What does this fold into?
Amino acid sequence: MKRAEFLQEIIDTVEIEDVINENTVLDDLEEWDSLASITTLALFKQKLGLNVGAQEVKKCQTVKELLDLGVAKYE
Amino acid sequence: MVIGLKRNGDLMSFFEFENAKVAGISVCLGENVCLFDEQPEYYNNNELLCRRLKKTIGFGKRYEAAEKTTTADLCAEAALKLIKSMRLDVNEIDAIISVTQTPDYYMPGNAHVLHERLNLSKNCLALDVELGCSGFVYALFLSYLMISAGMNRVLVVAGDTLSKVINRKDRSEAPLFTDSGSACIVERTIQKTESFFLLKSDGKGVTKMFQPASAYRCPSDENTKIEYMDRDGNIRSAENFFMNGLEVFNFTLTEQPMMLQELLTRSGKEAVDVDYFIFHQGNKYIVETLAKSMKIPFDKVPCFFPEYGNQSSASIPGTICAQGMMKEKFSYSLVLQGFGIGYSWGGCFLDMRDPLILPPFVYGEENA
It folds into this structure.
């Protein structure tokens, strides 16, 4: 899966309505809450086969930081 | 005496039994119905959030016990109804195992409270198991062990009234749980059955889900009663139940698919050999995510979280009762998998032979 495709998975699953890019700050999004963190954690496992720690997701401030967690697995 | 327990291979936590079966199950729900749709103010009337929570987590209907109704009351009602429906003589029950974390008293445990309530014999031993969402599988394992050791019939009761220990202003926990009590009769069988258990624990999870204060490590005082607000706006005190949702979810997603795979492999089974996978109903998202990660079709994975909430230790028997099982089949196979507080997790493959599965009922609505 490509990096952009994974971003789209996050947008679809978390149902983010705003237009976002890698510089978007997660806390600025209305939809970014603990439920969003949990579903994103599951996406890392399901789509990329990656065990990302809960704390790692929590620490991310921007979309870029979030996507960087999967950097080893993108095509 | 028939020895029904076989040790399998090198793994200390995997067991095989061949002379016990589940003969009946019932579940009794708390008497107050709570509907997610009727409490939008709970989420600041945030329509988007409510829609997402309903769709993803599966919030719908759940049940809370009234102020004076305890776990023992719910379990007693479930047990009385099951005993009556199975036409059992209470003197034929050789042991009662109670699973709960919300007992009537700190001491003694609910097993003795229920021993008295159900008028069980002095020859019936009473034993408590202090576990949550994995507890039913653990107690079932103990009952199978007891049957292997020579007993004929064991009553397993499992239930919790977590609404009494969760802060109502804690939106991350309060809307999840249902108060209920279940009863299950396990019997010796002459016909050979196949049952496999795999059990695991990890004490590193102690502080991920726990009630920090009011026992003896941190006794109740004025400080432990002070309510505080966490980063997500949830309010609780140290005497309330606490769960680190993200960590617990991570544990579930990491360990549970592995356990299921290991259970099937060690049991010599494949997913096609199983009629239903009954997972602990943490929430709809967890049940569906586990099914997806194991590539099991949803029609084999009953999910009743939207109808009944998370029933804690009664979640697995509660789901079996809601599903009703297969009327057209005399014999079928189930995989049960419970996971939660501890961390503790356990799974089993059961060969079910014509069990009596009663539909869920509400406390006080039917006289058992």
